[in-house]
Amino acid sequence: MKVLFTADTHVPKRARDLPEPLWHAIDAADVVVHAGDWVDVALLDRLEERAARVVGVYGNNDGPPLRARLPEVARVGLAGLRLAVVHETGPALGRERRCAERFPDTDVLVFGHSHIPWDSVAPGGLRLLNPGSPTDRRRQPVATYLTAEIRDGELLDVTLHPLPRG
């Protein structure tokens, strides 16, 4: 199963649209996971039209229309992998411990908010992933998203993709 992870798209505030390479990757994915801060419900509509499957949550910049359609926390099983998605996890210091306590029955936790890519493993084995932002790189050298493959309950080939500056 091919999975794409994104977050903090902020369309149309930070960009008019998602970068074209990201749309191509979305088309190729079996599942698209979005960890919040969509900003406009129109992007959710477009993503649901194009993607084979969307798992998403709302973020702190998402208003009532998005909150009416998306949960604060999503939990799904994908090819035997227990995945959870949330927008905010708090400060980097202590993140692994806090998230392991909050998500004890989870293999992978995807989060956003910081716009900073993150890949770590908490004591007990919980993997934490933040794909960064494809539209608002903030203090990062480039905008980013993640892809991976899930096979037999394992997350494989996690790849951070840089996006060209638009």
Automatic annotation (TrEMBL):
Belongs to the metallophosphoesterase superfamily. YfcE family. This is Phosphoesterase. Its cofactor is a divalent metal cation. One of its GO terms (molecular function) is hydrolase activity. The lineage of its organism: Bacteria, Bacillati, Actinomycetota, Actinomycetes, Micromonosporales. It is an enzyme of class 3 (hydrolase). The keyword Metal-binding applies. Residues 1-152 form the Calcineurin-like phosphoesterase domain. Its EC number is 3.1.4.-. Coiled coil: none annotated. Keywords: Metal-binding. The keyword Metal-binding applies.
